[in-house]
Design brief:
Elements: E1 21-26, H1 30-40, E2 46-49, H2 58-61, E3 67-68, E4 78-79, H3 80-93, E5 97-99, E6 104-114, E7 117-124, E8 127-136, E9 141-144, H4 148-151, E10 158-159, H5 165-168, E11 172-176, H6 180-191, E12 195-199, H7 209-217, E13 221-223, E14 228-234, E15 237-242, E16 247-250, E17 252-255, E18 259-261, H8 263-267, E19 292-294, H9 305-324, H10 331-354
Parallel strand pairs: 1-2, 1-8, 2-5, 8-19, 10-17, 11-12, 11-17, 12-13
Antiparallel strand pairs: 3-4, 6-7, 7-8, 9-18, 14-15, 15-16
Helix pairs in contact: 1-3, 1-9, 6-7
Bound molecules: flavin-adenine dinucleotide.
Residues 26-32, 49-52, 57-59, 62-63, 68, 70, 103-104, 137-139, 141-142, 181, 184, 262, 265, 296-298, 303-306, 308 line the site of flavin-adenine dinucleotide.
Length: 355
């Protein structure tokens, strides 16, 4: 290890027979991978549970080919796929353990105590796992919303994420949706020489104005207040008829009309939510349930990879401190006690003054 402070998990550990994990992380996106890497580098046994069949989260599943240009340290940008692959490899090399195609369904308290921690039972679609701390890093976007009229074609020409570069091959692409993801998909296709029609149900595009300008500069065509009324497969093409009568032929259709939210999952976890429905956390990224942290898109209003990384790392370090410092010396407990003390003194002073 390059940094003298970093430790490593003992390779000879039999992970299958651990009585409990130090930390279980839900989600192998940017936040979960950064958190896992950090806990593993502090020699905490770490299990990451991921609903999909591979790691990476949104950069891997939604924009694998997009060149991401706002990650510090990558002046020439990096694709979603490469970034995901690198982060995953780093976590796996640090002996983070992964369970794919395993979906969180609940978190129960047990009556077992380990050094001040009430052991938690993480319930998933593939069995249960015990742990001391849980870090929720499951994002907000779960599965893409389907468009029935295109979905009924059951065709591999209909995509719910940005297709691979090779799929465009200079052909015609219909993008459905008016948000940032739809505009991003349109720009990607246009930059690769495709002819692009964007079909927007509303009377205005809601995505970023500069991306919209980019689509227009690249001669993408926007159809406002339109919906695909019927779609049929004709050889290598999809023929889409819009409700206004326009016919669009394309080799690929990209649907970006939002996502089914993962909120259903965390609403079932009995966590305190904010008025906007996001998970409430304290300055230590801990939720209203002790020992359960929440990081990345799942709670935050700044939805960026670097922010998800930073939060994952911070929560991991707070979890580490709680696990390794004596219960009564725990930084958070001391700070809470101090606040309680100050609040008590203030209340006392107010009573004195009132007399
Ligand atoms: C089209 C698009 C382009 C973007 N471009 C950029 C960009 O250029 N730069 C940038 O910084 N950010 C960008 N973002 C935002 C960025 O991708 C997110 O902020 C980031 O991925 C959040 O990471 P996360 O780990 O919190 O969540 P996610 O990436 O959503 O990862 C969450 C993971 O948890 C899993 N999961 C969900 N529910 C469960 C469950 N119940 N059980 C188990 N696993 C579960 C999911 O399958 C997923 O793998 C973009 C987003 C989109 C949609």
């Amino acid at each position: 290890m390059a940094d003298y402070k970093l430790k490593s998990i003992d390779e000879s550990i039999d992970f299958e027979s651990l009585p409990w994990w130090d930390v279980i992380i839900i989600g192998a996106g940017p936040a979960g991978l950064a958190a896992g890497l950090t806990t593993a580098h502090r020699a905490l046994t770490t299990l990451v549970i991921e609903a999909k069949d591979s790691p990476g989260g949104q950069p891997h599943f939604l924009y694998a080919d997009k060149r991401i240009v706002d990650i510090p340290g990558f002046p020439d940008g990096i694709t979603g796929e490469e970034l995901s692959e690198r982060t995953y490899r780093q976590a796996a090399d640090a002996h983070v353990q992964f369970r794919f195609e395993t979906e969180l369904t609940g978190i129960e308290d047990t009556d077992q105590m380990v050094e001040g921690d009430l052991v938690k039972r993480v319930v998933t679609s593939n069995g249960t796992f015990l742990c001391r701390k849980v870090i929720l890093a499951c994002g907000l976007l779960h599965y893409p919303r389907k468009l029935p009229v295109l979905d009924a074609l059951d065709s591999d020409r209909v995509h719910y994420r940005s297709p691979r570069i090779a799929d465009y091959a200079g052909g015609r692409v219909v993008v459905v949706g008016g948000g940032d993801s739809a505009l991003d998909a349109a720009v990607m296709a246009l930059q690769r020489g495709a002819l692009v029609d964007v079909v927007v149900r509303g009377d205005a595009v809601v995505g970023k104005a500069d991306t919209l300008s980019h689509v227009c500069e690249l001669e993408g065509k926007i159809h406002l207040s339109e919906e695909i009324q019927t779609a049929t497969l004709e050889g290598d093409q999809i023929l889409c008829r819009l409700n206004g009568g326009v016919e669009l032929r394309c080799e690929q259709a990209v649907v970006q009309i939002g996502f089914l939210s993962a909120k259903d999952t965390f609403e079932g976890l009995a966590l305190q939510l904010k008025p906007d429905g996001a998970i409430a956390i304290d300055p230590y990224f801990e939720t209203s349930r002790k020992g359960i942290f929440a990081v990345g898109d799942v709670h935050g209003d700044i939805k960026l990879i670097a922010v998800a990384w930073a939060e994952g790392i911070q929560a991991a370090i707070h979890a580490f401190r709680e696990i390794t410092s004596p219960y009564w010396l725990n930084e958070k407990r001391l700070s809470d006690n101090k606040l309680t003390l100050i609040a008590g003194r203030l209340a006392e002073a107010a009573i004195q003054k009132a007399r």
